[in-house]
Amino acid sequence: MGCSGCRVRFNFGKLLSKVSVFFIMVLIFTYFFYCLTGFCDTAPRTLYSRQALDGDYDNLDDRRRILEDLRPAARLFFNGTTSADARQVAAAAAVAVVVEEDAPGQLPQAVTLDSEKESGESNGIPVSNTFGSKRFPQAIIIGVKKGGTRALLEFLRIHPDVRAFGAEPHFFDRFYDKGLEWYRNLMPRTLDGQITMEKTPSYFVTKEAPSRVCSMNCQTKLIVVVRDPVTRAVSDYTQTLSKNPGLPSFQSLALKNATTGLIDTTWSALRIGLYVKHLETWLQHFPLSQFLFVSGERLVSDPAGEMGRVQDFLGLKRVISDKHFYFNQTKGFPCLKKPEGSSRPRCLGKSKGRPHPHIPPEVLQRLRDFYRPFNHRFYQMSGQDFGWD
Ligand SMILES: Nc1ncnc2c1ncn2[C@@H]1O[C@H](COP(=O)(O)OS(=O)(=O)O)[C@@H](OP(=O)(O)O)[C@H]1O
Predict the structure, then answer these.
(1) Cα-to-centroid distance, 152 and ligand 1 (Å)
(2) What is the mean pLDDT of the chain?
(3) Is any ligand 1 atom within 6 A of the Cβ of residue 348?
(4) Which one, of 143, 157, 160, lies nearest residue 197 by Cα?
(5) What residues of the chain score a pLDDT lower than 70?
(6) Where are its TM segments located (predicted)?
(7) In this structure, which residue's CA is closest to atom 13 in ligand 1?
């Protein structure tokens, strides 16, 4: 009797140790599984996301972009997991946590925008995988803020030979001390023949950026989307006003003195528009042939035409054409008819194409007069007349 009780206890103890060994094995296996599928790589990205999302530029669009990039993977995961999918689902969870921590007030908005698309259709955004390598960008959209840089990047992303990082990495201005490997690790994987890209519009006005980009690779192609500096300044002001409704009027910030009409060039919204000055700095490090100047105005009036120039400059087959765009009357901008593989059209988010506040015409005229000589020098230097006067 007593002995059989001992045996039961002994067997139970044996079973318990077998179960714990089994669970330990499962844990070890799971860990190796995630590392093999590259999930361990996502740690720096998570850290990055927290910082990059603090940026001034289209944060909401970036958040939506990141969530959009990850959503198809999540869908696949629930339909039948593959190792690459699992990696992205885990990354999605990590990013979502970071987004929430970063701006809790904005997360529901980002999620709402994202869930608007949950119509059951695939949005067709390609799911990245572990094929290919993470490379430094061969081409960067370096500016200008409010020029139309998001539109350009989103249009380019429909090209099968372009892979781009969705958010703005801000490596060459804010995070340079993180090192080049950190930067490279942010990039999506590309196959041979594909181009890696990113966009950070503040690079164009960052003094240190040209030498830093050159020390990564002096052959990097540089794209600058330029827009009438007066409209650009108003657009910039509109963005700041949307975040800070108590902002003084545009005219009080633009003019040092209303009577003399002296322009305040220390205001960044005006300084950014001195394109020739910023270009001079870049030309100390890169030849003009490595730049492409995209007209922000033509990107709206003739997106296919402008995208043709961009594809030629990047040495890409002309894939993006008229058939990819339609003009959305409500938005007042061209939108993508079929964002790769999807039958559902897509426009840029609400932070793109905001209505501008009324600015007194004499203030706009004063600014036009101010910019004219700078614009003309910019036309000469770039070899293109953008027709802003
Ligand atoms: N297709 C399309 N849809 C929506 N908006 C478009 C498009 N093409 C160009 N634009 C113009 O892009 C302006 C925003 O520029 P950026 O994307 O460079 O802004 S940012 O610097 O990244 O914040 C944005 O400026 P605002 O109109 O002042 O909002 C738009 O005029």
Answers:
(1) 9
(2) 78
(3) yes
(4) 157
(5) 1-16, 28-129, 340-342
(6) 15-34
(7) 148
Long-range contacts of 257-263 (CB under 8 A, 24+ apart): 261/366, 263/366, 263/367, 263/370
274 Cα distance to chain centroid: 24
Q: What are phi and psi of 162, to 5 degrees?
A: -120, 130
pLDDT tens across 247-267, in order?
999 999 999 987 888 999 999
Q: Which long-range contacts (CB under 8 A, 24 or more apart) does 259-265 make?
A: 261/366, 263/366, 263/367, 263/370
Q: Are 189 and 130 in contact (CB under 8 A)?
A: yes
Reference 142, options 56, 58, 222; nearest CA is: 222
Alpha helices in the chain (DSSP H): 2-36, 42-52, 59-79, 83-102, 107-115, 149-156, 180-186, 209-216, 229-243, 250-254, 268-271, 275-283, 296-301, 303-313, 361-382
Would the CB of 145 count as within 6 Å of ligand 1?
yes
CA distance 142 to 286: 13
Residues annotated catalytic, as ranges: 146
Cα separation, 71 vs 64, whole angstroms: 10
pTM above 0.90, yes or no: no
User: Is 235 a pocket residue for ligand 1 (Cβ < 6 Å)?
Assistant: yes
pLDDT in tens, 83-107: 333 343 334 333 332 222 222 222 2
Residue type, 242: S
**Cα 150 to Cα 376: distance, rounded to the nearest angstrom:** 26
ipTM of the complex: 0.99
> Residue 148 contacts by C-beta under 8 Å, 6 or more apart in sequence?
225, 227, 294, 296, 299, 300
Please state the atom number of ligand 1 nearest to the C-alpha of residue 201: 21
Distance in Å, CA 215 to ligand 1 centroid = 30
CB 329 within 8 A of CB 345: no
State in Å: Cα 15 to ligand 1 middle. 64
**Ligand 1 pocket test target in 352, 354, 359 with most atoms within 8 Å of CB:** 352
String of DSSP letters for 167-200: S---TTTTSGGG-HHHHHHHSPEE-TT-EEEEE-
Name the residue at shortest CA distance from atom 19 of ligand 1. 146
Q: Is any atom of ligand 1 closer than 6 Å to the C-beta of 146?
A: yes
CA of 371 to the centre of ligand 1 (A): 21
